[in-house]
Design a protein that fits this description.
Layout lengths: L7 E2 L8 E5 L14 H20 L3 E11 L8 E11 L3 E12 L5 E14 L14
Antiparallel strand pairs: 1-6, 2-4, 3-6, 4-5, 5-6
């Protein structure tokens, strides 16, 4: 298997709304200094739930991780930015795409796309039962 190609960007993507931004700490890393994949996945889920909750006008629950690709490692001290956008709305479900970028090396800043994922959420009522999503709400 070949190593993933690192693509260094000049800056974060223009024209997209940043949903979440966070800096991982040493406690979030394994012994080699890479941030745990589960840490990244957790933040992707939070970022994806924000536009889903807004669209659903209420509570949502994650029902599927349709795809999740780690392109590059996240390192301690990276400024990690999450961009989430709704890609599909069903009767009770909302599918969200999330892209994750790391800004690193403050002396000569680099921006690297580290992860991309697609998650599906379902709108739920106060009893945790699926409810209809209406984009007219």
């Amino acid at each position: 298997m070949s190593e993933p190609k690192t693509v260094i960007l000049a800056s974060l993507p223009a024209g997209k709304e940043q949903t979440l931004r966070v800096v991982p700490m040493p406690a979030d890393a394994n012994f080699t200094g890479d941030i745990f994949g589960g840490w990244v996945m957790s933040h992707v889920d939070v970022a994806g739930s924000i536009p889903a909750t807004r669209l659903a006008c209420g509570r949502v629950a994650t029902v599927a991780v349709n795809s999740f690709v780690f392109k590059q490692p996240v390192l301690v001290g990276d400024v990690v930015s999450f961009y989430a956008e709704v890609v599909k709305v069903g009767r009770t479900s909302i599918t969200v795409g999330v892209e994750v970028y790391a800004q690193r090396n403050p002396v000569k800043e680099e921006c690297v796309k580290v992860t991309e994922a697609i998650l599906t959420y379902v709108a739920v009522d106060s009893n945790g039962k699926p409810r209809v999503v209406s984009v007219q709400q």
